[in-house]
Automatic annotation (TrEMBL):
<dbReference type="InterPro" id="IPR007877">
    <property type="entry name" value="DUF707"/>
</dbReference>
<keyword id="KW-0472">Membrane</keyword>
<keyword id="KW-0812">Transmembrane</keyword>
<protein>
    <recommendedName>
        <fullName>Storage protein</fullName>
    </recommendedName>
</protein>
<dbReference type="Pfam" id="PF05212">
    <property type="entry name" value="DUF707"/>
</dbReference>
<keyword id="KW-1133">Transmembrane helix</keyword>
<feature type="transmembrane region" description="Helical">
    <location>
        <begin position="21"/>
        <end position="44"/>
    </location>
</feature>
Length: 384
């Protein structure tokens, strides 16, 4: 099958004609929180600046590290530099810099409303057509897990009619986007800070041989910061390292990839590698990875090769495949439906081409950023 078939299921969620946002209540809430976290300094700063200052200066102030207010020397006013950026005017005791995705009720005492405090978060990027499979997946996760569905086809309330669990999960609906697009916008590390592990899964995974609690147990036992369940060895795998191995609990290296794919046996894709179809991240790994996701590269191709940058070396000790809990990648070919025919290219081909383009682009950006960083070190330390 080769490289062409890697993760074809991402592609069906993309289209470039105008972004149409249809968001559920949570969209607004999450966005509101993010906005609240990010912009208070802007608003306060603007309000406190003399009226005649041009707007551009007030806005650039938000990005400045040296936004020391006039009141800084006035001890009757609050200014706490160690507060989160932008919240320096608040007494530290009132600051809630992190959130969670727990549902709350509109009445009664808030202290009594949370019967469970799930420590694990599971997200699926879904279309209504795959609902039976998602039903099977969701049932694999106990109420120790918060579940979020990202809907790429705009169909949400229909799920409530069919599945009882649907009323207790979070639905986020934005048409024709990919899971990395949703993740970047809705899963900011401060928003999901409550969760020890975050599952970011596709919709076409068979979970007959998967037990979620047992998976968590394995990941903790082996100290894996980034992991995925092994793939059914009977099926075609793009990367051999993801195939299930018998008689081991987890594995992380020593693989037999196609000729030329392994330039270094301790580096991706031959070690320290998981694919982007069913990754599971620790809180710390996610905080790092979130910063590496590019806003314009929506398919996430190439991220798998860069995951190692988010863990301590040697990366293969922190990134691995769990063999005791394994899944089946079903390669459901609903690909083209989210693309658009253009320049004689089929929708499917258009999406696929963009995947490859993004992969190359991401690789270049990482390389260049790394080079720039090391170059800047030399400039700063002339003794080198
Ligand atoms: C949920 O987590 C608790 C605490 O870790 C554990 O005791 C319990 O067995 C879990 N529930 C299920 C259904 O596995």
């Amino acid at each position: 099958m080769g490289i062409l078939s890697r993760s074809p299921n991402y592609s069906r969620r993309l289209e470039d004609n105008g972004m149409k946002l249809l968001a559920t209540a949570l969209f607004s809430v999450t966005f509101g929180i993010l906005l609240g976290l990010s912009f208070p300094s802007l608003w306060i700063t603007k309000a406190s600046l003399p009226q005649k200052l041009p707007c551009s200066i007030a806005i650039s102030n938000r990005y400045s590290d040296i936004a020391v207010p006039v009141q800084a020397t006035d001890i009757s006013k609050i200014w706490v530099p160690s507060n989160p950026k932008g919240a320096e005017r608040l007494p530290p005791g009132i600051i809630a810099s992190e959130s969670d995705l727990y549902l709350r009720r509109l009445w009664g005492n808030s202290e009594e409303e949370l019967k469970k405090n799930p420590r694990y978060l599971v997200t699926f990027t879904v279309g209504y057509k795959q609902r039976q499979n998602i039903d099977a997946c969701v049932k694999k996760f106990s109420d120790n897990f918060t579940i979020v569905l990202f809907h790429y086809d705009g169909i949400t309330s229909e799920w409530d009619d069919e599945f009882e669990w649907s009323e207790n999960v979070i639905h986020i609906s934005v048409k024709k986007q990919t899971k990395w697009w949703y993740a970047k916008r809705f899963l900011h590390p401060d928003i999901v800070a409550r969760y020890d592990y975050i599952f970011m899964w596709d919709e076409d995974l068979g979970v007959d041989h998967f037990d979620a609690e047992e998976y968590i147990h394995m990941v903790k036992k082996h100290g894996l910061e980034i992991s995925q369940p092994a793939l059914d060895p009977e099926k075609v795998c793009t990367w051999q390292i993801t195939k299930r191995r018998e008689h081991v609990e987890v594995h992380n290296k020593e693989t037999n990839e196609k000729l030329g794919w392994c330039s270094n046996p301790n580096q991706p894709p031959c070690a320290a590698f998981v694919e982007i179809m069913a990754p599971v991240f620790s809180r710390n790994a996610w905080r790092c990875l979130w910063h590496m996701i590019q806003n314009d590269l929506v398919h996430g191709w190439g991220l798998d090769f860069a995951l190692r940058r988010c863990v301590q070396e040697p990366a293969y000790e922190k990134i691995g495949i769990v063999d005791t809990q394994w899944i089946v990648h079903q390669f459901i070919p609903s690909l083209g439906s989210q693309g658009k025919e253009e320049d004689g290219k089929s929708p499917l081909q258009g999406v696929r081409d963009r995947c490859y383009m993004e992969w190359a682009m991401f690789g270049r950006r990482v390389d260049e950023a790394e080079k720039e960083y090391f170059k800047s070190l030399q400039v700063q330390t002339p003794s080198n």
